[in-house]
Amino acid sequence: MTATRRFRRHVAVVLLALTGSLALAGCRISGTATEPTSQGSTMGTSEFSTLDAAGVDQIRATKTARLDMSSGSLTKAAVRVTEDSYGPEINTRDSGKIALTIAAPNGEISGETDRIRFKTTEKRPDFSEVTYFLTAGSADEYFELIRDGVKRYGIDSDSAERWISSAEADRAKRSDFSITSGTATGLEVNYDLRYDGGKDTQVIIVHVSPAT
Fold first, then answer.
1. Which of 54, 57, 86, 206 has its CA 20 to 30 A from that of 166?
2. Is-contact 102 49, C-beta < 8 A?
């Protein structure tokens, strides 16, 4: 075999090896490209707010809070606070309302609020109640908020309509009234009315607690 033929065979072998290496490298690159997309979509579907310092800062910054009571209660461990903690009070009256969502065993509870409170004791591993405040700028808007609670949460319709009728007859009245709670979501939702016709803003205090 001449030197020229040996040289040509050597070049062909080298080129074949390089082609195979490039093909394998291409497979490895294309195989890893889809992993971040898959991981990102999984992480984005299971996020709930926490109530530690960082979590509260995020709620204030984003004006969004999502709490998980789908098991029937809100545990302190789930929101990253210690068992002896009483939980924070989140007040954003100076900076706008928070879009609050509470995942319930059956559906969701939601509202726009500028105050969220948590009720518990230092010996409970969970919160016995989540409280938030709804506000309305007119009597008609206030009545609509009440009727929305009746429709969505099973709050007692007869009790609500009797109160609305009395308020419509005397819009300047003052009244503190607790409507019979609803449990349609699997949680107990109570609308505690704080109405004063002489004021520009009317308040409903919403109490959300495990169903008894």
1. 206
2. no
- Classify burial at 35, counting beta carbons within 10 Å of its beta carbon; exposed 0-12, middle 13-18, buried 19 or more: exposed
Residue pLDDT, tens place only, 135-164:
999 999 999 999 999 999 999 999 999 999
Name the residue among 118, 100, 97 with its Cα closest to residue 109: 100
How far apart, in whole angstroms, are the C-alpha atoms of residue 204 and residue 146? 8
CB-CB contact of 148 with 169 (8 Å): no
Please check whether residue 79 is in contact with residue 46, taking contact to mean a CB–CB distance below 8 angstroms. no
List the one residue out of 56, 110, 116, 112 whose CA is nearest residue 91. Answer: 116
Has this prediction a pTM greater than 0.70? yes
**Distance between CA atoms of 89 and 102, rounded to whole angstroms?**
16
